[in-house]
Amino acid sequence: MKSITIAELTAREGTPLIDVREKDEYAAGHVPGAVNIPMSEIGNRLDELPAEAFDVICQAGGRSARVVQALEERGYDATNVEGGTGEWIALGNPVEKPSA
């Protein structure tokens, strides 16, 4: 399974990012530009995944690793983000929250 660090994620440009946390976690704050497709829904939403290579993030890296493994078995070019959104925030990176 391919994986990248938060430092590598911050240097990436143009690679879609899928956040597999649940909707309430995503709403509490997410990496700017990340698209929310919760792990619990991803099996029914495969048609929403990018055709090109993309990154997958969760809170700490565990759920996203399981999702990446399952997607790779289906032929997707997915990369896990180690450390997840928790590390992204801890390192002081910007966070988006939906406007109320």
UniProtKB/TrEMBL annotation:
InterPro entries: GlpE_sulfurtransferase, Rhodanese-like_dom, Rhodanese-like_dom_sf, Thiosulphate_STrfase_CS. The keyword Transferase applies. It comes from the Bacteria. PROSITE patterns: RHODANESE_1 (PS00380), RHODANESE_3 (PS50206). Residues 11-97 form the Rhodanese domain. Keywords: Transferase. The keyword Transferase applies. This is Rhodanese-related sulfurtransferase. It comes from Microbacterium ginsengiterrae.
